[in-house]
Amino acid sequence: MKNYTVKVIKHDDATVEMDCVLSWEAFAAFEKRALARLGEHLELHGFRKGHIPEEVMRKQLGDELILSDMAELAIQELYPTLLEEEKIDAIGRPSLSIAKIARGNELAFTLRTAVVPAFTLPDYKSLAATVAPIAPAETTNADVEKVIENLRHLRAYGHVHEEGHTHGHTEPLPEIDDAFAKSFGEFTSVEELKTKVRENISKEKEVEARSARRAAILEAVVEHILFVVPSVIVESEQDKLYAQLEADIAHSGLSMEEYLKQTNKTKEQIMEEYRPEAEKRARMQLVINAIARKENIAAKDEEVRERSQTLMTLYPGADKARTEAYADMVITNEKVLDFLENNVS
């Protein structure tokens, strides 16, 4: 028999409200755990930390604090059960409002959480078939010469400058000769180096063309679906875009503070400018997730491990769990886009 009741209210903004009442008997069961947790941080003269008698702790802490900690523990434990029992596909952390809390009484509270919006997928295979393959752009001699010029800057200064900028360097750029070519690997001549550069540029343009078609396929599918994107997902995408901007600014040698002064903008203004793109990205990700579920597409454990290990090498100190979650998402996205590209009807 359940020791709680819950009333679920679905809102049009892709959130769900759960009005819950937990019996006093079930609520009271968390008191010892709450006292133990609070006692870990309580210091009283004459008692060892963590070994204060319950009666003394009750007087020192007060009933309000004890009940509040009991509620936190109880709700933390009950929340996953509520989601499972009520079949709620929650996103992010819920907001909490406690309506009633008193010793000897039921605990009444309301949880509100963003949820994965419900929508019906269109015939995505047919839609994918309407997007023709995109031919890669031609690799020109100018493309090759630009890369060679960048390599001269790299060899002379250790980094690449934008065209027309010397950043105070006076060292002459190296001559484009066979010795220059040999300094970049197993090349015996400039022509060999240029041939390899041309091959690499062509491959990059092929990847760009394929990525452009994949994006067009996904946009064609998304255009046929209407749903509200939870604000928590949009905000997460805004954070990602801003973090990328910070990384780009740092790479250019500026601080974020200097950049904001130069552009005469605040972080809040930039975040708001990112909102349309963030919502677009969030919408696409939700559609990809829905196709992955329908087609049983998922990243394999070994794929996730390998990709996350590579990321951890590139970004030492990154959180392992978050890195693995990111790797899982990226690999699954790639598999879904492969599916859309190659399984059109």
How are the secondary structure elements laid out?
Blueprint: E1 4-10, E2 15-22, H1 24-28, H2 31-39, H3 54-61, H4 63-85, E3 90-100, E4 107-115, H5 124-129, H6 141-157, H7 178-182, H8 190-222, H9 231-251, H10 256-263, H11 267-295, H12 301-314, H13 320-342
Antiparallel strand pairs: 1-2, 2-4, 3-4
Description:
This protein is an alpha+beta fold. Among the domains are: 4-115, Alpha-Beta Plaits (2-Layer Sandwich); 118-125 and 136-225, no CATH class. Helices cover 58% and strands 10% of the residues. The chain is built from 13 helices and four strands. It has helices at residues 24-28, 31-39, 54-61, 63-85, 124-129, 141-157, 178-182, 190-222, 231-251, 256-263, 267-295, 301-314, 320-342; strands at residues 4-10, 15-22, 90-100, 107-115. The chain has a four-stranded antiparallel sheet. Helix 6 crosses helix 8, helix 8 packs across helix 13 (320-342) and helix 11 (267-295) packs across helix 13 (320-342). The longest helix is centred in the middle third of the chain and has 33 residues, at 190-222. It is elongated, with a radius of gyration of 29 Å. The two termini are 50 Å apart. The mean pLDDT is 90.
